[in-house]
Amino acid sequence: MDSLKMMAAYNRWANALVYDAAAELSDDELHRDTGAFFGSIFGTLSHLLTADRVWLNRFTGEGPRPSALNEHPCTTFVELQEARRNEDERIITYVENLTAEQLDAQISYSPLSAQGLIQHRLSPALVHMFNHQTHHRGQVHAGLTGMGKPSLAIDLIYFLRSQGRAWM
């Protein structure tokens, strides 16, 4: 369970760094197609928020329930940044209150991208959620550096060496 708490804290830290860097972009840069799966940096950050909301709704039955993975839940970057902060806090609160029994329990859900019912333990789904964040943050990072912006040190080890010392 400690590793999931670490990942929730890391996730918030890395998202804050990525959003701080994206806040420096012009509106054109923010919405420019960078070749990532969800197009622009704004599109990719929107997808990450949407996907986290999908997963948290599956886990808790609470909060927003997006119906498509390419939704743009916010119209402005400022709104998106605030929604991200709130979602990161929801994730941390959720993970901090999980028990070993809950992590081992089966969850059931219908994927947005396919028909049918999926069942598996909660723990791997949480790991997937954090891994998914890392994957798409990498796409945002590539978009930023492709625009000539500074490279971000957002690897887990940098978190552990700074704010994440409790997990070292």
Helices and strands, in order, run as HHHHHEEHH
Major β-sheet profile: 2 strands, antiparallel
Shape: globular
Rg result: 16 Å
Work out the oligomeric state of the chains in this entry: single chain
Q: How much helix, percentage-wise, in residues?
A: 55-70%
Beta-strand segment tally:
2
**In whole angstroms, how far apart are the ends?**
15 Å
Spell out the blueprint of helices and strands.
Blueprint: H1 2-22, H2 27-31, H3 41-60, H4 77-96, H5 100-104, E1 106-109, E2 118-121, H6 122-146, H7 156-161
Antiparallel strand pairs: 1-2
Overview of the molecule:
Helix content is about 60%, strand content about 5%. It has about 170 residues and is mainly alpha-helical. The protein has a two-stranded antiparallel ribbon. Strand 1 and strand 2 (about 120) form a beta hairpin. Helix 3 packs antiparallel against helix 6 (about 120-145). About 25% of the residues are buried.
Throw out a few tags for this protein:
single chain, 168 residues, two-stranded antiparallel sheet, 61% helix
Question: TL;DR?
Answer:
The protein contains seven helices and two strands. With 168 residues, the protein is mainly alpha-helical. A two-stranded antiparallel ribbon has the order 1-2.
